Every structure is written in C-alpha cells, then in structure tokens.
Amino acid sequence: MPIHWSPELIEQVRTLAFAEGFASAGIAAAPPQSEAATRFSAWIDAGHAGDMDYLKRRNEAGDLLRSSARVAIPWARSVIVCALNYTLAPAPLSIDPADPASGWIAKYAWTGDSEGRPLDYHDDLLRRLRALEVGLKQLVECETRCYVDTGPLLERDFAARAGIGWIGKNTCIINQGVGSWLLLGVIVTSLPMPLTVMLAPDRCGSCTRCIDACPTDALLAPTPEEPTRQMDASRCIAYLTIEKKGVIPVELREPMGRQVFGCDICQEVCPWNRRAPVAEISGLAHRDELVNPALAWLAGLDGPAFKREFAGSPLERTRRKRLLRNVAIAMGNSGDLGFLPQLETWTEGDDAVLAESADWALERLRSRPSASIEATATTAILER
Ligand code: B12
Ligand code: SF4
Ligand code: SF4
After folding, report:
1. Same domain assignment for residues 242 and 368
2. For residue 99, is it within any domain?
3. Which of 61, 96, 112, 170 has the highest local Cβ count within 10 Å?
4. Number of folded domains in the chain?
5. Which domain holds residue 138?
6. Which residues form the pocket of ligand 3, taking CB atoms under 6 Å from any ligand atom?
7. Does the beta carbon of 162 lie inside 6 Å of ligand 1?
8. What is the pTM of this model?
9. Segment holding 304, helix H or strand E
C-alpha cells in the first residue's frame, strides 16, 4: 500500500472521479500555513464576510477554522478536489433581454433529478464523492472526510492548487476548457502529498469585464501591488439574496435588479464561459420552470407550494420568507405597475421585513414615470 500520493495513484483517482461524472479533479497538499490563510484572515478583519458568522469561527487557540484544513481536522495532509460542470443544457443568461416581470434564480439552483424533482447539488455531489471515497479506499489505506461547501476549508484555494483552474478576478475557479460553471466537492485525506502540482496559469490578463459588470461593485479591483481576487461579500447580490437575514441595505436594492436568488452576472460576462460545454450527467437535469421565473408565480407560492417546488433544493436555505422579500424588491425594480396590488397586500401583512421591502418597492414603482408603459406584460401573467 502506498504511504503518500504517487503519480500513479493520482491518475487512478482522477480516472475514478471522471467515471463519477466530474469534469476535473486533482490533489492539493494541506499545509499547516499558507498564503491564502493570511489573505483570508485579512478579509475577515476587513468585514467583507458580512453576517456570515460561520466563516469567522475560531478554535480554542483563536485560529480561524478555515485558515488551514489541519485546524479542524488535525490528520489532514491532502485534499482531493473534484469539479462538476453544472451547465446541463443550453440556457439563456440573466443579462439577456427578458420579460421585466420575471426574476432570476442562479443557475446552480436549477438542478433537479431526471424526473424534474428538486435536487440540491450538495446532495448529488456528496453521493458522487462518497463513491469516489470507496474507490480510493480500495487503492490505499487512509483517513478521509467528504465535504461539499460545508467543510471549514477554502475550497477555491485547494482547487487552484490541485490544478483545477485559476482564481479569476470574479473570484471563481475557471478551468480553461470548461469555464467557471463548476461546483466543487472535496475529500480531505491523511495521505501526504510530496509532489508539486503545476498551477493553472492565470488567464484573466488585462480583462476587467466581471469587475465592470458587477451591479453592486462587490468585486475588489486588483492593483499592481495586490492581485486581490476577493470581493466584499457584504455587497454581493448572492449574499444579499441568499445569506442576509432581515432588511437589505436600501442603497443596494436598486442594483439588485431582478435577482431573487443568487447572481450569475460576473460569470456570464466572462469570456472563458462563452463556449462553456454542456455536460451530460446521469441523474441530473435543469428545471426549466426556474429559468426566468415569473415574479407573480413566485409571489403566489404559499407554504405547501413553496415546499413542493423547493424542498431539497438550494432555495430551501433562503426559505419562503426571504424569497418573498427578494421578490418584492425585484417587483420594485421591474417598472411594472401590475404589481401594485400584490405589494400593497404585503405592506399590510405581519412580516415586518416583507412589509418594509414592499413599501420601498411601491415607492419606487410610483416614482418611475415609465412604469405604466411596461405594465401590460405582468398583468397578463398575473391573470393566468
Ligand atoms: C462564503 C461563500 C460565498 C459568499 C462569498 C463568496 C466569495 N467570493 O468569497 C457568497 C454568498 C457571496 C457566495 C457567492 C457565490 N458562490 Co459561494 N461559497 C462560499 C463558500 C462557502 C466559502 C468561500 C469563502 O471562504 N470565501 C472567502 C474568500 C476570502 O475566500 P475564497 O473565495 O476561497 O478566496 C481565497 C482564496 O482563493 C485565496 N487564493 C488562493 N490562491 C490565490 C492566488 C492568488 C493569486 C490570489 C490573488 C488569491 C488566492 O485568496 C482568497 C482570499 O483569501 C464556498 C465553499 C467553501 N467552503 O470554500 C462557496 C463557493 C466559493 N461558492 C460557489 C458558488 C457557485 C457561488 C455562486 C456562483 C453562487 C451564485 N450563483 O449565486 C456565487 C459566486 C459569487 C462570486 N463571484 O464568487 C462555489 C464556487 C465554484 C467556483 N467555480 O469557483 C463554491 C466553491 C461552493 C462549491 N462547493 O462549489 N459564496
Ligand atoms: S455574483 Fe453578482 S453581485 Fe456578486 S460579485 Fe458577481 S456580479 Fe457582483
Ligand atoms: S471576466 Fe475577465 S477578469 Fe473577470 S474572471 Fe473572466 S477573464 Fe477574468
């Protein structure tokens, strides 16, 4: 049995990962300290994590759990990183022209099973990782632990060092052949990694499309001294719509546009995603009803209907309460006076956050002179 990663073992594991449907896979060492840890710590201190307290957790010695895989998992010596391409069919982009009365749900949340039922990528990836873990244990004796998103690890840092891709100015891992529509899963192992992996070269060059396109100026622009590849997450629409509880800061509501769950803009404008291949992955499909969903449809989902549509999907995390808050803001940004009755009803309800968001939306709709012209399309949807 090998006692560390050898070139043969790495290739065997990569082959197993491809058989599980992953588009790319590699192995990175888990050192006690790294440059990314220092950067992460400074990022936390700068307040860029907003209210995401889980990112700020420390051990008894005061070390950030995410500063090294070894802080939370002392036996960790290497990390297998697998990337799944979640472009499962050709699809429109959020920046393409669309009905102003429709919202946008981030593409990663469109996944369903082959019957069209909601399927959270966390569950699907974990199943594939566990199968890979079984295969690994037949090749070598070691400790392992699988994570998808939930582990105290800087997954993108490991992905970059495992050779999956480079970290773009939009902060995403970009693979030269596949692009950045990738979800990451990791297996932490006790197997030392003595080999130096060739890092994928940074291919952002002088491009700044993602930074220029970000509606809330969340991406921190690099300077000659500091390459950054970081964002102020407290300004990112993905944070505001998915993670942020309570009211959304007023100055960020207008730039949110019609995003009701997550945001894809800085990946959509990236030239490396222009020819992103479509993946055929057994058991996974896009749920077409989540592409450009009518705001009126989302607003009309009561508790049981929300559960039917989103139980087992990433939207479960946001829950109906926060989704409606986001829908109210998107309605305010739609320019569509057909939404006035729905918003007025919400202002009178018991949910204070929804009432306040609806109030803001009403104010915005009424103060926009173009609103009445755009109203017709939504009224038709509301009447369906
Ligand atoms: C918190 C979080 C968020 C936050 C903050 C995102 C951020 N950019 O920091 C919010 C809610 C905003 C978010 C949004 C999204 N997320 Co998110 N998120 C996470 C999570 C749980 C932690 C990330 C984190 O620690 N961020 C803090 C920053 C400081 O760390 P970092 O991005 O890892 O970057 C550090 C290293 O890369 C390091 N570094 C390493 N090497 C190098 C080299 C150089 C030269 C430089 C300069 C830096 C550098 O420096 C950085 C600073 O410390 C990870 C899963 C995980 N456990 O890692 C998923 C994860 C990053 N998210 C993911 C996804 C898919 C998304 C969304 C696309 C979802 C959506 N459509 O709405 C958006 C993308 C927005 C964006 N442009 O990043 C994927 C990313 C896949 C990919 N291709 O990169 C991950 C990996 C989840 C997964 N398992 O697939 N997310
Ligand atoms: S996901 Fe949207 S809001 Fe967040 S950095 Fe990218 S473009 Fe900006
Ligand atoms: S849009 Fe340009 S700068 Fe941004 S990640 Fe893509 S290539 Fe890099």
Report:
1. no
2. no
3. 170
4. 2
5. 1-89+105-257+265-290
6. 168-170, 204, 207-210, 269-272
7. no
8. 0.95
9. helix 303-310
